Amino acid sequence: MNILSEIAVITMGTNEVADVIGVFTTHFNGLLKWSYCTIKNRRLFDLILKLEKCHVLCQRIDSTKEGSELYESKIGSARQHSNFFFLWWLFMCVFTVIQWCVIPLLLGTYKSYLINDTFTDRDLPYIAWFPLDIQNNFNYIFLYLVQTIGMLTCAFGIVCYDSFYVSMLIAICTQIQYINTILAKTDFIENTRVPEVVFILKKKLRNCVDCHVEIIEFLEKLQIFTSPVMFAQCIITLFIICLVSFEVSAVKFTLDKENAFALFKLFGYFLAAALQLYFFCFYATQITYLALQIPHSVYSCGWEIIIFEEKKESSTKKQFQYSDISRLVQMITIQAQRPIVLTGGPFYILSMETFRAIISMALSNSIMLRQLSDSG
User: Fold this and answer.
1) Which of 85, 112, 140, 273 has the most other CB atoms within 10 Å of its CB?
2) Cα–Cα distance between 245 and 350 in angstroms, integer?
3) Contact, 152 vs 141, CB < 8 A?
4) According to the model, what pLDDT value does residue 192 have?
5) 122-147 pLDDT, tens per residue?
């Protein structure tokens, strides 16, 4: 209902395009994410089960007390980051509802009291068209609840989806970082000069290969699940940033309240859209970088030193173990050669380069439009 009312007011024409488009994109984005997750709920549960399997395999890489404590500390840090981002998006959700629903009601009621000495002449939280008389108390309460509940549910849907997606990326970043740390750890090799070290190294490499395979499969499933929504997210973000840059070029930089409030709203739109895209691109870039570090970590584990030092005791069993170690090293190295890239549909790669290009384009458009506006 809210989306249809906003399309109607855009069709009829309005001078406050940025306000209408900002609310419309929020409603559309929230409705899309709610609907998509509801339709694809089976894949959502499969992703969680797949991530749990990756978690179990990561714990098996180094079952010693030191390795377990290291993994628990990294997972604890990942939980704190996930909680921080959830609270951040929840704050943005509450701020959005207050900005668009509570403040307009208070300001409208206050202005109505100052002008007419009554509380009857009030506006709705945001611009929309409804075939009802909003001066009627019953109609006003009904439409106010429709707009408020619509904004609250859409904002909360965006918070839940974005928190889920970023939490998945944080968990995978933590697991890949743990694999790099464990592979590069050679203390037990230096301190232990016994034949069992070959068995320990082979077990560690095999567990790393299994965990790495599961992580790659998880990311492929995550990519399939999130690619359509992230494509829409990139389009919406690009549209909002370009619209904000266009609106900024038309705002006069004066100290009066009207222009100051308009700049504040435009800055809020820009900040919310930019931060949302930044989090996605940052952690996608981290995954790509950490995954490409795995071959370097493998060659830092000291596998060639063990083989060289133990080759004097040449036996069929040991030679078989050496060939197993070399095969595992080659396997994990070949697996890590292909970069892990997360995309938003067929056109957008989620990376810091994409984020920089979008922000640079928006700022360039804003400066160019501002210069044209001043010269005109």
Assistant:
1) 273
2) 22
3) no
4) 52
5) 677 777 778 877 777 788 888 888 88
Residue 111's alpha-carbon distances to 57, 116, 128, 134, 316, in angstroms, are 62, 8, 20, 16, 91
Which residues, 6 or more positions from 65, have their beta carbon under 8 angstroms from its beta carbon?
none
What token pair was written down for 71? Answer: 């993994």
Rounded to whole angstroms, how far apart are CA atoms 208 and 20?
A: 51
What are the two backbone dihedrals, phi and then psi, of residue 349, each rounded to the nearest 5 degrees? -100, 125
Least confident piece of the model among 100-114, 131-145, 334-348: 100-114
Residue 346, C-beta contacts closer than 8 angstroms, at least 6 positions apart: 231
Torsion of CA 105, 106, 107, 108, to 10 degrees: 40
How confident is the model over 321-330, as a mean pLDDT? 70
Structure tokens at 6: 């906003």
Positive/negative CA dihedral, 362, 365, 371, 372:
negative
